[in-house]
Fold this protein.
Amino acid sequence: MVNSKKVFSFGIVFNQSKKMNKDCNTEEKILQAARRVFIAKGLDGARMQEIADEACINKAMVHYYFESKENLFEAVFMDTVGVFFKKVNEILLYEGTNMQEKISLFVDNYMEIIASNPFIPQFMINEINRNPKILYKLLSNSGLKPEAFMQLFKNRVLKNGKDIRQLVISVFALCLFPFIARPLLQIIYFEDNSNEYDQFLSERKEYVKKMLLKFLDE
Amino acid sequence: MVNSKKVFSFGIVFNQSKKMNKDCNTEEKILQAARRVFIAKGLDGARMQEIADEACINKAMVHYYFESKENLFEAVFMDTVGVFFKKVNEILLYEGTNMQEKISLFVDNYMEIIASNPFIPQFMINEINRNPKILYKLLSNSGLKPEAFMQLFKNRVLKNGKDIRQLVISVFALCLFPFIARPLLQIIYFEDNSNEYDQFLSERKEYVKKMLLKFLDE
DNA sequence: TTTTGAATTAACCAAATGGTTAATATTAAA
DNA sequence: TTTAATATTAACCATTTGGTTAATTCAAAA
């Protein structure tokens, strides 16, 4: 039998297991391999055999630890996006003396986080398209409150409550779109030069801040 | 034998075929059914049988007209995005007396086009991630020139050539992101109320224009 | 009316794929 | 050292799936 530790542990390994093998444990190896494959191929494009190969284990082990492909994918998704949400949550707590400073801090830190996990936005969008309900689970699991973003624009909220969602979504748009549409944009506007695109991304923080602050300036 | 008319016709039906059946022709039925299924399920998630069912024809017909799934997908993609590119190309020709007016016209018309094909951005992004090379084919087929967008910001180019790509990509970001990430945003910021989100989208044109014009204002 | 090529269908096929099983190895506790 | 639970593997299985085929229908030209 199988249902003793693994399923629904979502990458958080409770050390209730007697032996957690020498160098690295199998469950974690599977999760990481699965993440790579799912991100590269998507849920439908991914093959359980490929995940097993990537993790250097027998395919039966994947089912031993996660039962089904669906299950494994959900574990990977919750793990990956959960960690991401936590990081975002952290930077929302950074203090700034005024709205301008808060926004600057947020844009810098947020784009930094995305830059080190550039696949996450697309991964989330794909999954939410496929299965919107998973987001509810995730939101309640992660403690991330949508209202927290609104706090960034406190002054603005008071002045013009109606526009606040337009504004928040614009911030995300400006930050995320260059990552989501990278392959497309890199070909069209950068002759498919990857280095140039990286350069573009690193310069973008300043640009986004400039645009937002000028827009918000009275 | 089979290779007489169909393959690579990409939805453009050349009337070289003797009988083009009464009400609607099969090739077009397949293309439309395939588009629906591919958009809903993705290339890997789509099933040839489902496409056949959706088109109310025998599965063998799909292979008869398009040979392989890959082929059919490419036909659908080229057809769909090709038509889209043509529409965008058209609105780029609209005259405006100055940059401000050009941008306003573009944003209005572009978001209108997207609103009536809201699935296209995500469809393109997915496909380019999977197979970046197809974009080269598409660009040369469609006559859409990336530089054409730059023309929108002619004044700006002269003043600050470096930022022009940041600007163009920001315009697309602000217009497209709310469509790409709709299911996510609708849940988080609109309590999953579809009507409210539609309202948000229709109001967004004004917002985007306001933001861009204020930013570009000297 | 006959003929000829295209259109259509039901049945079929081989490969891929998610998943299982039964046997074996490993580990740590008793 | 024995034991009992967990971890691991190779072989296997049923189903799905993209794709094929051979027979049939259909439509128009001769």
Notes: Residues 18-19, 21, 47-49, 59-60, 63, 67-69 of chain B lie near DNA strand D (CB under 10 Å from a C1').
